[in-house]
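Can't paste images in this forum, so I'm doing it all in text. The chain is below; anyone willing to post the predicted C-alpha cells underneath?
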Amino acid sequence: MAQASGAYLVGDYAGALLHAERAAAAGEARGATLAGHIKLHGLDGEPDDRAAVRWFTRAAERGEPDALIALSRLAQAERGGLSAWQAGDYLDRAAQTGDARAALEYGLYLMESGDPARASDTLDWLRLSAESGYAQAYSEYAIALDQWVHGPHDPARALDWYERGGLAGDPHAALQAGLLYLSGEAGAQDQAHGAELVEMAAEMNLPAAMGQTALLYFQGEGVPADPARAVSWAQAGARAGDAESQFLLAYALATGEGAAVNRRDAYLWVLRAGQPGQGSLAEDSDRAQLEAALERVLDPAVAAQVREQAILTAADF
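Text version of the structure:
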C-alpha cells in the first residue's frame, strides 16, 4: 500500500493503480478504495463509474468507511448502476464503523430527508461526530439543536457547539455564537465575549459579520464606541455586498459620524442597500427615510446620475 500511496502522491496514477490493485488482492481495503478513486476520476484514463463501484464495493465489504461514503454519494447521484435508495444504507454502515466523518454524513443525510421519526437518530449521529472531535460537525450539530425544524430548538445547548465551530474556523458559527452571547437568548449574556466572536467572524471575511461588527462599534455594545472603526468595518462589508454594511456606511457618510460627510456617496450606498437580493433592506423604514432625506438635499441631476450608477453597478455586489 505504501508503494501505491507514493506513486499517487507524485502523479504516477498508472503505477498507483497497479500497486493499489495488488494491495486489494492481498486483502488491504485501502488499496481497493484508492483504486476506486482512480477509476472514478479517470486518473488513469477515462472515468469509469462502474469500475469505481466495483472497487469501492470490495473495500466496503471490509468495512472501509471512505469507500462506503463514496458509494453513498454515487448512489445519491444514481451513477455506476446504483440507486438513490441505497445511499442511506451505505452511510448507515459507514457510521456504524465509528468513523466521525461518516457519522456526520449520515446525520446530514437523515436531516435532509426530513423524516421527523428519525429526528432522534439524526441528532445522535451529529452529536457522536461532534463529540469525537470532528470539527466540521460542531456547527452542523449546533444548527440541528437550534434551528432545524425537527430539532429541540434549544439555543442554550447549541451555544457551546457554535462557539467551538467558530474557534475551529467557521465564521457563520462564530457569528451565531456571538449574537447569542450578545442577546442572552441562550441564557448566558456576555456582551464583551459576544462582540469578540462577532468581530472574529468579520476577520474571517464573513460580510454579514462585518456589518454586525460595524453596528457594535457605532453603538458601543460589548466594545468601546469607535465610529472610525465602525466605518472601516462598514466599508469592508459594503464592498463585499452586505446590505446592512451598505446602509451603515451610507449613514456615516450622510451624518459625518466616523467619516467625512459625502452625501453623494451616501446616496449611492443607501440605494445599493435597497437593491434586490439576499439580505436586501428594500423594505427597511430607516433605510427608506435616509434615502428620502438624501434625495431632498442633493441636486436632482446629481441624484439621477447616482441612481444610474447604482443600477449599472448592481451586478458587482
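The radius of gyration is 26 Å. The mean pLDDT is 94.
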